[in-house]
UniProtKB/TrEMBL annotation:
This protein's record includes keyword S-adenosyl-L-methionine: yes
Gene designation per UniProt: tsaA
UniProt superkingdom: Archaea
InterPro entries according to UniProt: TrmO-like_N, UPF0066_cons_site, YaeB-like, YaeB-like_sf, YaeB_N_sf
Protein's name according to its UniProt entry: tRNA (N6-threonylcarbamoyladenosine(37)-N6)-methyltransferase TrmO
Record key words, sorted: S-adenosyl-L-methionine
CDD domains: UPF0066
Length: 161
């Protein structure tokens, strides 16, 4: 089945190069960005200002191809791509939870964003952790358990070009 997606806007950040940028939102604390929504989708922003955080889905547009096994930034071992947050994915879809600072017209101003400048935005969803609290009894985070603290300081390199 072929699937076609259209971007609903563009994400603007200070990160113009993949190398050296944060690999997760926790490593981008305080980093500001702007999400500019295409005019035909602006009405979809109604009531979004009532939320503090959003989950943004975007196209990892500077990544070519994919790898089914990768050596992620935060570990020295290889893992299946679906057990990582590697950008080298079959459909190149990224996601981040970011803080809404304000919304003006077609622009959502955000903080704690770890996304490359000029990234095509695919979707926005309000972040509501309470929607999951009754479904997650025992959370397991696999290999991240020993490595998740590295996300605050680890920077991107050229391994996924």
């Amino acid at each position: 089945m072929k699937i076609e997606l259209e971007s609903i806007g563009t994400i603007h950040t200070e990160f113009t190069e993949i190398e050296g940028m944060p690999i997760q939102p926790t490593g981008a604390k305080g980093v500001k960005g702007e999400i500019v929504i295409k005019d035909k989708y602006v009405d979809g922003l109604k009531d979004l200002e009532d939320f503090s955080h959003i989950n943004i889905l975007y196209l990892l547009h500077k990544v070519d191809g994919y790898m089914l096994e990768v050596k992620p930034f935060m570990d020295n071992n290889t893992h299946g791509v679906f057990a990582t947050r590697s950008p080298k994915r079959p459909n190149r879809i990224g996601s981040s939870v970011v803080k809404i600072d304000k919304i003006e017209g077609n622009t959502v101003y955000v903080s704690n964003i770890d996304v490359l400048n000029e990234t095509p935005l695919l979707d926005i969803k309000p972040y509501v952790p309470q929607l999951y609290e009754d479904t997650i009894d025992e959370l397991k985070i696999g290999w991240f358990e020993a490595n998740h603290s590295k996300a605050k300081s680890q920077k991107s390199d050229d391994r996924f070009k």
